[in-house]
């Protein structure tokens, strides 16, 4: 095999050859090896439906809602129903980004977040002002765990002020507090 594996720091050459071998042997099963990025089921099976009392706390606290898997899934379903899930997806991507340890993974994820949510005409462009966009772009010259903090805070504030009140009035939420 050609020596292209030198540029791939995460996987050993042997591992890559094995994976390539599998791909080359069974072209029809290649699809099974493609793992979509961060695709989680909308409502994780393990997640308990919250008590009405617990769900009632979400009216006043976006953070409590975001910390609850069921609440997060329900909020995401609601936002999808009104075609405005990009803010929540950006917020979640930033949370995932802050858990990374490896500088190489951080650089890769930072680029992905930038291309998906921040750059002009991005497929899921979030609504942030030029000042915030500029700060974020400067922060990405040398990615750190706080590179997206300003933008994430702006989006959090936007969801709190705008999306949360609409969610609380929606059927998605009303079902949970019965």
UniProtKB/TrEMBL annotation:
Subcellular location: Cytoplasm; Membrane
The encoding gene: RGS5
GO cellular component, one term: membrane
Main subcellular localisation: cytoplasm
PROSITE patterns assigned: RGS (PS50132)
InterPro entries: RGS (IPR016137), RGS_RGS5 (IPR034956), RGS_sf (IPR036305), RGS_subdom1/3 (IPR024066), RGS_subdomain_2 (IPR044926)
GO molecular function, one term: GTPase activity
Gene3D superfamilies referenced in this protein's UniProt entry, alphabetically: 1.10.196.10, Regulator of G-protein Signalling 4, domain 2 (1.10.167.10)
Domain of life: Eukaryota
Residues of the RGS domain: 61-177
UniProt-listed Pfam families: RGS (PF00615)
Descriptive protein name: Regulator of G-protein signaling 5
Reported function: Inhibits signal transduction by increasing the GTPase activity of G protein alpha subunits thereby driving them into their inactive GDP-bound form. Binds to G(i)-alpha and G(o)-alpha, but not to G(s)-alpha.
Presence of the UniProt keyword Membrane in the record: yes
Keyword Amino-acid biosynthesis: no
Record SUPFAM superfamilies: Regulator of G-protein signaling, RGS
Keywords: Cytoplasm, Membrane, Signal transduction inhibitor
GO biological process entries: negative regulation of signal transduction
Organism: Prolemur simus (Greater bamboo lemur)
